[in-house]
Amino acid sequence: MNEDSIKTTKKDHVEPNTMKRRMVLLWKLLYDQTDENHPVSTYDIVDYMAEHGIKVSRKTIKPDIDLMCECGFDIVKVSSKPNKYFWGSREFQVPELKLLLDAVSSSRFITRKKSADLKRKITGLASVHQRKQLSRHIYTTSVIKPRNENIYYIVDAINDAIETKQKISFNIIEFDGNKNKIMRHNGELYFMSPYALYWNDDFYYAIGWSDKHEDIVALRVDRMENLQVLDEKAVKRPKDFKVSDYSHKVFEMFNGEETRVKLQCKNELMKYVIDRFGDKVETEPTHEDKFICYVNVRLSPTFYGWVFGFGGDIRILAPSEAVEEIIDMSRKMITAESM
Question: How far is the CA of 132 from the CAs of 100, 127, 128, in angstroms?
Fold first, then answer.
């Protein structure tokens, strides 16, 4: 082999690696630093490459960008002298990223450490210039964040168990009067055949068959510890079981025998009634500032707590047992010292 052939061989070996690096750098420049308001010129690209040890000419840039477009990247050209380019459509637009950031910041399920990590990743989906718009001023200082970083792994394990139809085992966390974490029933191991994960009131719940209760239950995921996916097959999900129906019963005051309740509400509270019972709730106007509504609910502390939350602007008119029970609950909340 002569000297010329050796040089050619070396050249052919180096050029593909140089091109790969050049293409990666071009992708990084366009994705990270450009948008429709901040395009880069061919001169900018040449200078950027030079800063990273690669010499290119303006003539090299167009074929590289054409190749990126052929591969499906949305690179927009602004015809000018010199031409300018920017990254076009992105998976998420800035308003969508803002919504995601607010959701992560406000969530009681996500720990502070994980919140910071997720927010960093979310902002990384925008250009460096758009990231300035993602500086959110949502007030979340009062949000109680969990400390258990294992929650995410527990959720993932439960999802796997649901997919493979296997049982899970776990302990349940409680707290004593001194705020010390303890295990329910001295560390008793609970066994569940999980059917679904349900999000309610900013908490994850695992819904499934409980071996202990011999019934379908909903348990808070953040109260689970030492969770294991077992080799044992899960109890088969009942054919008539629907997560939507179960969630209505457990989380939305429809559990047990339904009772038709007559409520008197101030007009400005209609939005809350619709939020809770849907826009098909039966209502009728009465006075200028009030309306009557009829709802089917279980007479439970959950329902009475909802009524109490409106400070008397929602009143129970019927049935009599519901009126008597909420009055009795009011009396119980008055301590002997204050009477």
Answer: 15, 9, 7
Q: Is the dihedral of CA 121, 122, 125, 130 positive or negative?
A: negative
Phi-psi region at 45: left, alpha or beta (left = phi > 0; alpha = psi -120 to 50): alpha
Which CATH number characterizes residue 260's domain? Answer: 3.30.70.240
Other Cβ atoms less than 10 A from the Cβ of 25: the count is 19
Separation CA 167–CA 193 (nearest Å):
5
| Structure confidence by residue, pLDDT tens digits, 241-287 | 998 888 877 776 666 567 899 999 999 999 999 888 888 889 998 87
* 3-state SS assignment for residue 157: helix
Q: Cα–Cα distance between 175 and 193 in angstroms, integer?
A: 26
**Helices marked H in the chain:** 3-33, 42-51, 58-70, 94-106, 112-123, 151-164, 243-251, 270-277, 301-308, 320-332
By CB atoms closer than 10 A (0-12, 13-18, 19+), residue 223 is middle
- Separation CA 111–CA 116 (nearest Å): 9
Final residue belonging to a domain, choices 244, 263, 290: 244
Report the Cα 314 to chain-centroid distance in Å: 32
Q: In 3-state terms, what secondary structure has residue 232?
A: strand
Is 55 inside a domain boundary?
A: yes
Cβ proximity of 322 and 299 under 8 Å: yes
User: Looking at the whole model, is its pTM more than 0.85?
Assistant: no
Peptide bond into 82 cis (omega under 30): yes
294 within domain boundaries: yes
